[in-house]
Every structure is written in structure tokens, then in C-alpha cells.
Design brief:
CATH superfamily of the largest domain: Cyclin-like
CATH architecture of the largest domain: Orthogonal Bundle
CATH topology of the largest domain: Cyclin A, domain 1
Family: Belongs to the cyclin family.
Structural class: mainly alpha
CATH class of the largest domain: Mainly Alpha
Keywords: Cyclin
GO molecular function: cyclin-dependent protein serine/threonine kinase regulator activity
Oligomer: single chain
Strand order of the largest sheet: 1-2
Pfam family, one: Cyclin_N
Helix content: 55-70%
Number of domains: 2
Protein name: Related to C-type cyclin
């Protein structure tokens, strides 16, 4: 398993390694280096961008994995391009890129949605008026295709999609930690409340760039490990049976065997989740 801290790709590394970053990388993003943004400001804008993705996804009734794919696209994009900054608004708006990531994720995950549906979701989600909130809840908003606002969103998404694809190097297949978590917990016969808590932790992870610091199995194991810590449950109590060749007999697999990670990796991911996802956002909210 690749070291969970992640490094930038070098000759001989697997292609997926280009999307693994270290903690120091997260403090030296284009938004910080080019845009002069504070790292905490970037963290909050990413959080809002992913929040917009989930709000749009809920409006469109998208499957969870489609929204998760869009969230990962957003974080990967901002590791290579800056957020909007300065009086001239150079860079890329997190809300505009959120809509673009949803549009692309729908295509990649074969959750077919036409562009007007994405525009409806974007305009409905960003309308904060009482009437707009009501239309969002009822899912009754339909944009006028002849309006300037519709044309603006259409142009933004289509132009931004090209930039997004190029920035992602057309590397669009995402391994989802949620799927790994569910399969592992099923093999380990983990109690449902514990699985739900770990699932929620993974959802929270995708709102932060912490999700690009770890491979999907490590992030899934970290979420499971933290859910056990929170629930005061010893993860070593969960084992799975493995039947090998007749001469080998039957043996038990530990939870780290099932997740296929090192315990140190899972512990590191759990610590990052605690510090960078929860504590950091709690401190900002105070």
C-alpha cells in the first residue's frame, strides 16, 4: 500500500499517485502561492464548494457515488488551479466549479442528466431567498432557457468543463472509499450503527482536502478506526474467516487484513480526520 501521506508523482510511480498529496502540499496550493489566499480561507471555500455539490445532487436526486465523484474532482482541480482571487476575480469560482464537477460526474458515472437539469439545480441551490428555498424544497424550479442567467450558467459550465478535463488529465475514474468501507464491514459483521457512523465520517472527509492525502482503502480504514474510537469499541474484536487451501486450513483475518492496509496508515488517517476535518472546522466556526 502506498504511504498514506502521499507524494507528488515521480518517474516510475503508478498513475494514481499523481492524485495523492502530502499535508505540506495542501498548504502550498495554487490558491495560496498564486492567489495569496490564506490556507484556512481555501479550506472554507472548498467546504462550501462541496456543500454546493451535495445540495445540487440532492435537488437532482443523484446517487451518493455521483456526488462523491464530483467532490473528489473539485479537490483534485484545486490542487492544480487557484480559487478565485483579487479584485479582478482571477482564478476559478468554487460555486461555478461545483456545478461543472456535478455535470462531469453525471457523465462519468452514467447518471444521465442533461445540461438544463444541472443549470436548474445550480440556480435553485444558489437562490437564498425564501421563495427560492421553497422552490428548492419542492423541486419546482425550472430556469427559463431564454434568460440571461440560464445562458450565463450554460456558458460557465461548458467552458469550465474543458478546463476541468484538462486539469484532471482526463483521468476520471475514482475509487470510492464508501464502497470499500461497506464491503469490509460486511465481511467483518460490523454493527450497523458503527458502519453508519463511519459512512458519515467519510462524507465529512470529502468536504475537506484531507481526502486527497490518502488512498481510498486507507481513508475507509481511517474512518472505520475513528468510528470505533468515537464509539469506544476495540476494532480488533472484528474478524473475518478466510478459507485457504485444504492443508492451510481456516484462519481469521483481522480488520486491517480485510481493509488491506497497515494499522499505522489507518491511525494516521484517523488522526488527520480528527485534526483537519473536525477540529479545524470547529475552530473556524467559533
Amino acid at each position: 500500500m502506498t504511504a498514506s501521506t502521499g507524494t507528488r508523482p515521480s518517474t516510475g510511480q503508478a498513475p494514481d499517485d499523481q492524485w495523492l498529496f502530502s499535508k505540506s502540499d495542501l498548504s502550498l496550493t495554487p490558491s495560496v502561492l498564486q492567489g495569496g489566499l490564506d490556507a484556512n480561507e481555501e479550506k472554507q471555500r472548498r467546504f462550501k464548494g462541496v456543500g454546493a455539490i451535495y445540495r445540487m445532487g440532492e435537488y437532482m436526486r443523484l446517487a451518493q457515488h455521483v456526488m462523491n465523484t464530483a467532490a473528489i474532482y473539485l479537490h483534485r482541480f484545486y490542487m492544480r488551479k487557484p480559487l478565485e482571487y483579487g479584485p479582478n476575480k482571477i482564478g476559478h469560482s468554487h460555486y461555478e466549479m461545483a456545478a461543472t464537477c456535478v455535470f462531469l460526474a453525471c457523465k462519468v458515472e452514467e447518471s444521465h442528466r442533461k445540461l438544463p437539469s444541472v443549470i436548474d439545480a445550480a440556480m435553485a441551490s444558489f437562490d437564498k431567498s425564501p421563495a427560492g428555498a421553497q422552490r428548492w424544497m419542492e423541486r419546482t424550479f425550472r430556469a427559463d432557457p431564454s434568460s440571461k442567467e440560464f445562458a450565463r450558467w450554460r456558458d460557465i459550465i461548458l467552458l469550465s468543463e474543458e478546463t476541468l478535463l484538462e486539469t484532471l488529465c482526463f483521468d476520471l475514474i475514482v475509487e470510492h472509499p464508501h464502497e470499500i468501507l461497506v464491503k469490509a464491514c460486511s465481511r467483518l459483521s460490523v454493527d450497523t450503527p458503527l458502519v453508519r457512523l463511519a459512512w458519515t465520517i467519510l462524507n465529512d472527509c470529502l468536504r475537506d482536502a484531507t481526502c486527497v492525502m490518502f488512498e481510498a482503502p486507507v481513508l475507509a480504514a481511517g474512518a472505520f478506526y475513528r468510528s470505533c474510537q468515537t464509539s469506544q469499541v476495540d476494532p480488533s474484536k472484528f474478524v473475518a474467516k478466510w478459507s485457504g487451501k485444504e492443508q492451510e486450513g481456516e484462519r481469521q483475518l483481522t480488520w486491517i487484513d480485510v481493509f488491506d492496509v497497515d494499522e499505522s496508515e489507518a491511525a494516521e488517517a484517523a488522526e488527520a480526520i480528527e485534526n483537519d476535518v473536525y477540529l479545524a472546522h470547529e475552530q473556524h466556526a467559533q
